[in-house]
Design a protein that fits this description.
The protein is an alpha+beta fold and 211 residues long. It has two domains: 135 residues, no CATH class; 60 residues. Strand 7 and strand 8 form a beta hairpin. It is elongated. Keywords: Membrane, Transmembrane, Transmembrane helix.
């Protein structure tokens, strides 16, 4: 599997620039190979090794727990408040209270889940199976396991919001600085693979086609 790098034609025309690119790429690959000490032999322990821990895990858990608790309370209180507001004989006030409570009860949990569902709280690596397991929270704050091999990772050319890479088609977000071993991040992102230099050819319009 090759990494593709689009390079403008005018940049390659300079031999010095091209030599610099080749030198940088060789340094990246060499650095990655030298740091791959996590490739254990078949006698390695079978337990998963934690290679990443999300710094915002506790905060996300607390916010989602508060949101879900508030939603349950809102569902219970909504009929009571609607009944009390109806006695005021004020339609505008009833609609205002119902709308406000409905937003906090139903909309907020879905918005929080949309933002945080990609956040990887923990990333584990199994030396025997050579697979990673990303842990994220689902809507009901339960741990969801996403197991994948490094070859199953795709990195979008234009990453979406809160998306670092995709594993098995699922978008995931990680902070590169939080990896205990940077070599794992380099491997997942495909930095250990050779570059496939694609030159962007500039086509000039000569005002006609050659016959």
């Amino acid at each position: 599997m090759l990494r593709t790098l689009n390079i403008p034609q005018e940049y390659i025309t300079s031999s010095a620039n091209f030599a610099t690119l080749m030198h940088i790429d060789s340094q990246i690959c060499a650095s990655h190979v030298s740091s791959l000490h996590f490739r254990h032999s078949s006698t390695a322990p079978s337990q998963d090794l934690q290679v990443y821990h999300g710094q915002l895990t506790s905060q996300i858990r607390a916010v989602k727990l508060f949101s879900l608790t508030s939603s349950v309370g809102g569902i219970v209180a909504l009929p009571i408040l609607a009944n009390e507001a109806s006695r005021l004989d004020n339609v505008a006030l009833v609609l205002g209270i119902s709308t406000t409570l409905g937003v906090f009860t139903f909309l907020t949990p879905f918005m929080l889940h949309f933002i945080t569902k990609k956040y990887v709280t923990e990333l584990l690596y199994n030396p025997q199976t050579d697979k990673y397991t990303a842990i994220v929270y689902n809507f009901f704050l339960r741990r969801k396991l996403v197991t994948f091999h490094a070859d199953q990772v795709t990195v979008p050319d234009v990453p979406g919001i809160f998306t670092t890479f995709k594993a098995n088609g699922l978008a995931l977000f990680v902070d590169p600085s939080l990896f205990k071993e940077p070599a794992h991040y380099a491997r997942i992102m495909g930095y250990d693979k050779p570059l496939d230099y694609k030159l962007n050819k500039v086509t000039e319009d000569k005002g006609g086609t050659d016959k």
